[in-house]
Amino acid sequence: MTSRRGFLVAVADTGRGSAGARRPARWLLVLYVICLLAAAPTGLPHPVADGGLSANRLTALFDSYGDTSGRWTGADRTASVRLPDGRLLWLFSDTFLGPVNPDGSRPRTAPFVNNSAIVQQDDRLGETLHGGTPDEPRALIPSPSPGEFHWIGDAQVVGDTLQVLVNRYRRTGAGPLDHTLLGTSLATFALPALTPTGVRPLPLDAWISWGSALLRDGGHTYVYGTEAAGQAKFAHVARVRGDDLGGPWEFWTGDGWSTDDRASARVLSGVGTAYGVQRIDGRYVLVTHENNVVFSADLVAYSAATPTGPFDGPDYLHRAPETAAGHLVYDADLHPDLARPGKLLVSYNVNDVDDAVTYADAGVYRPRFVEVDWPRPRPDRADVPPAPAALTARPGGAGTAELNWPAVRTDSELRYQVHRRDVTAGQTHFVRIGEPTAEPRFSADFLVDRHDYEFRVTTVGRRGESAPSPAARMTATVPPPPPPTGLRAQPGRSGDVTLSWNPVPFVQLFRVQQRDLTTGERTSIGTFTGTHTTVEFLQHARTYEFTVIAVGGGGDSPPSPPVRATAVVTPPAAPAGLTATARPDGTVRLTWRTLGRGVSYRVYRRDVSRGQAYGPPALESGASHIARHLEHGREYEFTVSAVNSGGESPQADPVRIVARYAPPDAAPRGLRAEAGPGSVKLSWRSSVSGGWHRVYRRDLTAGERDFTEEAIPAQGTRTTVAGLRNGHEYEFAVAAVNQAGPGPLSEPVRATPQLPTPTGLTGTAGGNGEARLSWVSVGPGLAYRVQLRDATAGETWRTDPYPVRGTRHTAVLLTRGHRYEFRVAATDGTTDGTTSEPVSVEVR
After folding, report:
1. Nearest-angstrom CA–CA distance, 512 and 523
2. For 291-325, what is each residue's pLDDT tens digit?
3. E strands in 267-367
4. 720 with 786, same domain?
5. Are 240 and 221 contacting, i.e. CB atoms less than 8 angstroms apart?
6. 108/502: higher pLDDT
7. Out of 99, 192, 386, 405, which could bridge 70 as a Cys pair, Cβ 3.0 to 4.6 Å?
8. For the purposes of burial, counting CB atoms within 10 Å of the CB of 629, is it exposed (0-12), middle (13-18) or buried (19 or more)?
9. pTM as predicted
10. DSSP code at position 25
């Protein structure tokens, strides 16, 4: 069973946490996530490549790291890839971060992310990397949008790039199985720093989660994927030419290759979402957790002559002891870069359907490693006992299959092993069910109604296992289970209610439903594998009603009689670890230790310099806050309280800090000047484009040597300097400014304001010694000087003593019969501009 495994086929899927919705115990095997890391410790090239590491050593290594690193306490989907510099990158899925308590438990406030990784150097595990900050960690490969998240497949190195296949999912409800596959993408990271360089969706339909395993063989890279189809999981195979997963893909159709992924064929049933494929001695070995049987403890291997099968098997490699304690195992993977000669090095993951278990013992949710000899020794077929000669199968009254066969011989040391194949579900191989029995009869349970099954029996002796008996076929008749009884609800103190109920024969799955009696809202909490679970994040003082449905091979039972419980939420403790850091932009960053999900925070501040009291608080959902709009040089005091549905905590111990601005350190660039009449328009580029700037000028024509600061600063990256003398050359510079003062000056520019020249001057004789003039306006705010001369009398130009405010003028007291010339110049009252072209008028 693994993350992303289907309902019933991998009940562990019902325990896995999703992207911030529920803890991994609730998401155990629904799907898996991505993980990756950089910044490994330095050291010599990896010394274990040839000799390998033992499974016991690796299990202990991760146990020690989880207990002592203070950064990583456990994760699943354990994959590995060798980096070019000899380091080994461990890729994980859902991950708990932070330290472990002294008693070995995991804090309820432990951060939980969907992506993490650890780099191994030599035989040491290094830094854990993730997105976000240490105080507010996030996935290293971020969610593309709210409600969506990435879980990873396998990874490989191509040149100086790490390629990771990731599968994208969307939450569709509150339950642990409420999600849907949206597609497969390719995430890339630059080596050696493992810097993220992008996530690109691949043109693939969302019915196969690709990346269960990668295998380079010959001139191709083979990509294995998993299809979830009802109760079964099936392996599929694709390939790319060469090693770039971003190139064109081909898909195995059963008898050839196609570029259409919809033509992809099933090659093997019973795989997990994650499995390993390795070429050994010319054959291809596929290792997986056994998923043809729900809740199997077995890790198995299948082998084939080609990467696409057909596969022989299963070979049973290891039975995980953790299932005896009620835990679930899933996600088998191979690690050939660390395997010792002649052995398969296999990892698998462990989890529990009850959140309380994964919090009470941090060691549960960590990878385990085993190693087995390969190729497997084959017994001498002449020494194994004979197979049963016949087998019959008939439906039992309780939805079972009753099997009988003739005894092989009277030998107390012989046992019989039953094997089963669900034909209707499309299982490709027979798998073991139950433990070996000494009697020639067996009752096979946990069947699915109306499914056709085939059964075989083998004889097991001291020297091996016989060939199988002839197969017997039967169609199961399974009634729905009865409703669970004895449902009990016990409220906790943190908005949680622990539910427990009595077992139901032949039932492994239970669906829990909840109704909020305050709002009437009904919610499916999820599907669980045991007879108890804890419902979390309930609202204080609200009463909830719970029912449980048994999910069996014959369908769903009626719901159990309901029970009610009123949730109790203890107000949180005051946040600890409040710190304040002044930043160069005048803001203050506050951080504190998170109190986990379901808690928000109120941030209070006051201006100590002015003796103010605390004002209305700012609200934060995470454990950090940026205090803005502070004044340079003033001392401020901050405190924080935590809030949940039970109320508000006491305030944290306050911290004080002086807000400090650093003057801007970059000069504006690209200063440009556009001269106008009595003014200059300035524009520039700046790193504080929306901020304030100081403008400086000097009059070069007047001999000024020093810049004069304009009285009013400019906001933005443009301004107009007015009140300038036309015809004078000016030099300008600008500087960004904040409360700490101005930054460096820009490169200066020069400009000379000029009065415009009037155009369109016309003149006509008006009689009685008058001449009427008109012209086109040169702009608002300017007057005009009219110049004239009696051309007939040979006069020189003279200026009318009175300026004209409009664009019309009548000259009077002129000599009749004389020809006069007129011209006009704009004036600002101090300086006159260039005159217009003259016009002549014959005065009458």
Report:
1. 9
2. 998 889 999 999 999 999 999 999 999 999 999 88
3. 268-269, 276-280, 283-289, 298-304, 312-319, 328-334, 343-351
4. no
5. yes
6. 502
7. 99
8. exposed
9. 0.73
10. G
How many C-alpha atoms does 403 have within 13 Å on its Cβ side? 35
Confidence of residue 22 (pLDDT cuts 50, 70, 90): very low
* Spatial distance between the Cα atoms of 507 and 420, rounded to a whole number of angstroms: 18
Domain that holds residue 463: 392-475
Record the tokens describing residue 738, joined without a space: 């904040």
Across the chain, mean pLDDT equals 90
* Closest to 168 measured CA to CA, from 125, 202, 119, 216: 202
DSSP character at residue 360: H
In a domain, 1, yes or no: no
Under a CB-based contact definition with an 8 Å cutoff, are residues 237 and 267 in contact? yes
pLDDT tens-digit profile of 355-379?
A: 788 999 999 999 999 999 999 887 6
55 with 87, same domain: the answer is yes
In this predicted structure, what is the pLDDT of residue 176?
53
**Residue 780, C-beta contacts closer than 8 angstroms, at least 6 positions apart:** none
Domain annotation covers residue 396: yes
Answer whether residue 3 shows pLDDT above 70.
no
> In terms of domains, do 557 and 679 share one?
no
Return the CATH number at 25: 2.115.10.20
Residue 410 — very low, low, confident or very high, per pLDDT cuts 50/70/90?
low
Q: Which of 500, 535, 566 is the last residue of a domain?
A: 566
Alpha carbon distance 355, 399 (integer Å): 32
Question: Residue 3 falls within a domain, yes or no?
Answer: no
- For residues 504 and 528, the answer to whether their CB atoms sit within 8 Å is no
- Encode burial over 162-183: b for 16+ CB neighbours within 10 A, e otherwise: bbbbbbbbbbeeebbbbbebbb
Q: CA 138, CA 132: separation in Å to the nearest integer?
A: 5
Number of domains in the chain: 6
User: Which residue, 12, 4, 96, is CA-closest to 349?
Assistant: 12
C-beta of residue 698 within 8 angstroms of C-beta of residue 750: no
Distances (CA, A) of 624 to 176, 579, 588, 594, 602: 29, 10, 11, 9, 11
CATH number at residue 674: 2.60.40.10
Same domain, 113 and 30: yes
* Helices and strands in the chain, H and E counts: 2, 67
Residues making up the chain, counted from first to last: 844
Which pLDDT tens digit goes with each residue over 565-600? 999 999 999 999 999 999 998 999 999 988 887 899
Residues 85-96, mean pLDDT to the nearest whole number: 93
818, 806 in Cβ contact below 8 A? no
In this prediction, residue 14 carries a pLDDT of 33
Q: How far is the C-alpha of 699 from the C-alpha of 726, rounded, in Å?
A: 11
In a domain, 574, yes or no: no
Task: Give 126 or 33, the one with higher predicted confidence.
Answer: 126
- The answer to whether residues 741 and 791 belong to one domain is no
User: In this structure, are 99 and 140 located in the same domain?
Assistant: yes
Which of 566, 599, 624 finishes a domain? 566
User: Is 719 in contact with 695 (CB distance < 8 Å)?
Assistant: yes
CA 253 – CA 120 distance, rounded (Å): 39
What is the tens place of the pLDDT at every residue in 209-218? 999 999 999 9
Sign, Cα dihedral of 423, 427, 433, 436: positive
Per cent of the chain over pLDDT 90 is 77
What is the reported pLDDT for 398? 82
**Residue with the two structure tokens 């997990």:** 272
What is the rounded average pLDDT of the residues 320-348? 94
One domain, residues 745 and 639? no
Provide DSSP, 411-464.
Answer: -TT-EEEEEEEETTTT--S-EEEEEEESSSEEEE-S--TT-EEEEEEEEEETTE
Residue 836 has pLDDT above 80, yes or no: yes
Same domain, yes or no, for 637 and 697?
no
Distance CA 233, CA 331 (A): 13
